[in-house]
Amino acid sequence: MTMHNATIDTGLPAIVCRNLAKTYGEDETTVHALRGIDLAIRPSELMMLVGPSGCGKTTLISIIAGILDKSGGDCQVFGEDLSAMDPGQRTAWRRDHAGFVFQSFNLMPALTATENVAIPLLIRGTPHREALERAADMLNRVGLADRRHARPRQLSGGQQQRVAIGRALVHEPRLVVCDEPTSALDHETGYQVMEVLRSVATAGDRTLVVVTHDERIFEFADSIARMDDGRITGVTPGFTNGAPARKPQ
Amino acid sequence: MNRIALKMLMGDRLKYFGLIAGIAFATMLIVQQSSILVGFAKQTGSFIRDTAQADLWVMDPQVRFSQDAVPVRDTTVQLARGVPGVEWAVPLYQGFLRGKMPDGTRFTMIMVGLDDATLMGAPPVIVEGTLADLRRDKAVFIQADKPEKKLMMKQGGGRPLALGDRFSANDHDAVVTGTYRARESFFWEPVFYTTYTRALQYAPPERNSLAFVLVKVKPGNDLHAVKSAIERKTGLAVRTNEEFVKITADYILNTTGIIVNFGLAVALGVLIGSLVAGQTFYNFTLDNLRHYGALKAMGVSDRQLMGMLLLQAATVALLGYSIGVGLGSGMGWIVASQGLAFSMPWHVPALTLLAILSVCAVAAWLSLSRVFRLDPAVVFK
Question: Where are the domains of chain A?
């Protein structure tokens, strides 16, 4: 078994997948989405998962984030096997430890930017006022202080994705999972969004897993895992070489 | 999360107002039709309630409602008076007679004959004249309410029968010496009051003419004990006011098909409410399924989601219900001011609230089952 890791020699990995498998359907209709994934991602690493459509990238991050059950193998996230938890425990784990950035932003259209960012805090039972204050602070960090009261339809695509990044980070999760965060944005905007993500998200020991097709943002990765047909075909260091080049001074 | 749930609900204005309008319409339909039904039911007992001086009514067991007089023997009055605990017992005549107004207009009336000595059973409010005027020669009292509808003379320019007019009751002379006010009645025929003796003169001869015996129970005596004693002694049916009101209402509502008609309207209200509220709420949930999926992915538990959906359903239910009850009451007030049947006891809005909450609970449950089945991985698709 080959463990793919760009920086495997530095401490314990945050995420370790061994021979991870996922199938959908049964018998003749069985689809092998993941065929024995071996992967390690260390704390504070930003790993990009790249590969053609249908290669299993989204399935892999869904299992890593505790949204989907595996069919075989092992996947430890911060030392915990999420598949061993019951659904309620897994939901609580996601609430406390995971942040999500979706391809289509998934912001609530009826809520303001601040309220959207505050959602993870409200889910955790943070008092409303405090949640809004922390959300406003987070919007400030992603450069949207002046758009706090705007609703999603009043924001550009890039601004919406920055709100989504704020929402993914406001509760200080240890894991942030991003699904094609720039695919709905033009190059310039996507670049700016990644700059924000890189600068704000990679704090402390937070681990980021970014699924993308967009080669233009590879320079923000610490490592790049290439996938094909449900397998990792290789992991290479990113352009940052382990030291984020785009991190602001 | 409650604020988020409410903002989600109110964010889509069209659906939000559509939901409220649908529930308001269904509520109004249920409240209005139920209240008209209750109004009709109440009006069937108007004559009995207007004769409230008595505690008990003695009658033939075959009597089905208050205008269904089946004559009993005249001696029943004496038999009732002989029962211990009876303060007084008086005869009451009641029957349908044909009449002819001064201009020749023919009509049908309900003639009520009161005990000559006591005039017990008289209508509650005398408008013109005094009750004693009923003892004058050929004296008859007519209803003061809306005579232009029930007692209109069609010939010679047309005017309603009025105080001082002479008319014919079953080919006998009668004179209007007074008018009275009574409750709105389910029965269309005008009710005329006269004395018992004169009523028998007007009425066609029969072997027995006594329709009812009105009985007052002495204070301190058990009403039901006296009732049973009179039943045993006379072999007739004895009913309290409420019992008589109930059998009258039951008979009329069941035999006329009113319950079926209004029941269908109420059922229609529930159905429309269910379809509109259920469909719109379910669609609202489907439209927001992606957001619920995102919330599930972010760690919202099924319990929290259930709370959000129930809050949304309860909010539209209570808002729609309040508007619907307001509209229903307003329309009822207009209907009632025209003298039509409309009565809204607290049971009507209470049961309507229950129906509307049930409808919305079903809608929420359908939506919930969809949200519970939702795979949070949908957010990555």
Answer: 15-237
User: How far, in Å, CA of B307 to CA of B371, rounded?
Assistant: 12
Name beta bridge partners: A226. Answer: A50, A234
In this structure, whether the domain defined by A15-237 belongs to CATH 3.40.50.300 is answered with: yes
Flag if A106 and B290 touch (Cβ within 8 Å): yes
Q: What is the pTM of this model?
A: 0.74
Task: Indicate whether B24 pLDDT > 80.
Answer: yes
Question: Which one of B8, B300, B377 has the shortest CB-CB distance to A108?
Answer: B8
Backbone angles phi, psi at A211, to 5 degrees: -90, 130
pLDDT of residue A249: 32
Chain A contacts in chain B segment 301-330 (CB below 8 A): 301-302, 304
Q: Would an 8 Å CB–CB cutoff place B290 in contact with chain A? A: yes
B259 has pLDDT over 90: no
| Cα gap B30→B24, rounded to integer Å | 10
Q: What would you report as the CA-atom Rg of chain A, rounded to the nearest whole angstrom? A: 18
Distance from CA of B306 to the nearest CA of A (A): 13
At B311-351, the pLDDT tens digits run 998 999 999 999 999 999 998 888 878 777 788 889 889 98
β-sheet bridge partners, residue A23: A32
Q: ipTM value, please give it.
A: 0.85
Range ranked top by mean pLDDT from A204-213, B76-85, B158-167: B76-85
Secondary structure in 3-state letters for B151-211: CECCCCCCCECCCCCEEEECCEEEEEEEEEECCCCCCCCCEEEEEHHHHHHHCCCCCCCEC
For residue A74, the cross-strand partners are A18
User: What percent of chain A is predicted at pLDDT more than 90?
Assistant: 39
From A67, A103, A110, residue closest to B10, measured CB to CB: A110
Residue of B nearest to A127 (CA): B1
Left if phi > 0, otherwise alpha if psi is -120 to 50, otherwise beta: which for A204?
left
* B354, B355, B358, B362 alpha-carbon torsion, rounded to 10°: -170
